[in-house]
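pls design
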């Protein structure tokens, strides 16, 4: 026989603050007095559906529970016991939060069903009802009170002025992927002009690698007492907003790219002017994989490359996140697209995304092949850096344009004007943030990306997903030259 147990209460704190604690499947050892210690098995994220938490109670009992569902829109989760020293059989529980209409407070509904051995019904019902649910209500109130989050909440469009617990990835010194580490922090409330977001996907870009290596120290200064947080883009939903912000409501789906690093975290406040809205058809992970790279592809193809029918385009790293978008978009505009890749598997991916000719090379030699294929390039899009310097000059046709987009092989040495004179070449070194320097520009370019995606002018790149805590592995993967498409972190 299954027993059904229901308990509910009202917590004098905004729903997003309460949900920020309860959605973390491994947070209960920080606030529930019955729990001694807890961990998520297999290094999975604590909000990953299917993850298992293994914990010990202070009375010595051990329990393993699995997260079955997690719904941020409905503020609801379900979980079950998969193994326990307590004789709770077929235990399934649901936590549901709802906003209270007479103030910025939260209704918390906790229910479960389970079977028990004969003769233990009352003992186990009381253990769950009083020792787990009712004690948990009081423990969470105490936890929020200590954080200064209970009482004084006032009604309004969105809760604000409350810190929210989150995870972030930091570095205290420059170096290899191993300098990245994850930590718990409280995300500060949004200041004037800012919107606080729950980030559900974070884009990984080569600029993150450059910052981690210390190639642009002014952009991300780091020190043991002041660690830096990398990351330039993310997608998620609005939690709340600071003063002087209009036009965004809690739950709105948005994405951003910004000139200030800091995206490697679960909750972040950013200037409202960075935000662009997400169409319903664009998922968070696609947005995080696509926004910065898509806007980059837009200005490369339209502003700098001025691609039109017959343009001869050479794209390095053609199977990378930007490369795939540029190849597909330029081919749709009638260009002859030639790409360089490092192996045959990447060559296949590049061809599938519009690359008409592919040069497979690992030693940065491609100029002769480019000249043979189409007499040189009108435009070279280069993210390779110094190792490809001389070959780029040789690969260009007369009046060709070299766009230096990155420096994967190392910083590009200064280019003397005489190097361009022989073929009347031109050279540019664009920065994406100068092309989205206002909210209107960002919204316009983002809309062009969403339209191109809907029309098939570009395709979503293949996406590799990593938990936020695995940022170091993601960086190592990106630097290995074995990836295709885009990499994202999922908090």
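designed seq:
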């Amino acid at each position: 026989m299954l027993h059904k147990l229901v308990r509910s209460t009202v917590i004098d704190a905004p729903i997003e603050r309460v949900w920020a604690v309860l959605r973390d499947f491994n947070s209960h050892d920080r606030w529930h007095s019955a729990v001694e210690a807890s961990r998520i098995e297999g290094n999975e994220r604590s909000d990953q559906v299917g993850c298992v938490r293994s914990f010990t109670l202070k009375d010595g009992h051990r329990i393993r529970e699995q997260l079955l569902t997690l719904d941020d829109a409905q503020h609801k989760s379900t979980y079950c016991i998969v193994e326990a020293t307590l004789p709770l059989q077929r235990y399934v529980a649901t936590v549901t939060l709802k906003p209270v209409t007479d103030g910025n407070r939260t209704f918390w509904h906790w229910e479960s069903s389970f079977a028990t051995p004969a003769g233990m019904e009352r003992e186990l019902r009381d253990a769950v009802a009083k020792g787990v649910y009712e004690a948990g209500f009081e423990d969470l109130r105490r936890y929020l009170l200590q954080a200064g989050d209970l009482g004084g909440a006032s009604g309004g469009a969105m809760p604000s002025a409350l810190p929210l617990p989150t995870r972030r990835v930091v570095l205290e010194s420059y170096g290899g992927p191993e300098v990245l580490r994850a930590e718990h922090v409280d995300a500060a409330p949004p200041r004037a002009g800012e919107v606080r977001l729950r980030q559900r996907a974070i884009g990984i870009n080569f600029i993150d690698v450059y910052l981690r290596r210390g190639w642009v120290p002014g952009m991300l200064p780091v020190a043991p007492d002041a660690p830096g947080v990398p990351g330039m883009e993310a997608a998620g939903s609005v939690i709340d907003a600071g003063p002087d912000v209009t036009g965004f409501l809690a739950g709105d789906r948005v994405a951003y790219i910004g000139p200030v690093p800091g995206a490697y975290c679960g909750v972040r406040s950013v200037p409202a002017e960075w935000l662009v809205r997400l169409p319903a058809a664009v998922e968070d992970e696609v947005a995080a994989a696509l926004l910065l790279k898509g806007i980059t592809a837009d200005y490369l193809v339209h502003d700098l490359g001025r691609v039109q029918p017959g343009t001869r385009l050479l794209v390095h790293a053609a199977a990378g996140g930007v490369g795939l978008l540029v190849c597909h978009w330029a081919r749709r505009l009638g260009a002859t697209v030639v790409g360089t890749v490092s192996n045959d598997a990447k060559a296949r991916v590049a061809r599938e995304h519009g690359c008409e000719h592919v040069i497979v090379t690992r030693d940065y030699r491609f100029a002769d092949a480019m000249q043979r294929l189409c007499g040189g390039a009108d435009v070279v899009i280069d993210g390779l850096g110094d190792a490809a310097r001389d070959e780029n000059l040789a690969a260009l046709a007369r009046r060709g344009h070299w766009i230096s987009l990155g420096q994967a092989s190392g910083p590009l040495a200064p280019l003397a004007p005489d190097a361009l004179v022989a073929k009347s070449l031109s050279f540019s070194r664009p920065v994406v943030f100068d092309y989205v320097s206002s909210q209107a520009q960002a919204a316009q370019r983002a809309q062009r990306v969403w339209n191109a995606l809907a029309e098939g002018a570009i395709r979503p790149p293949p996406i590799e997903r990593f938990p936020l805590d695995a940022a170091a592995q993601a960086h190592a993967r990106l630097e290995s030259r074995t990836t295709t498409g885009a990499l994202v972190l999922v908090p």
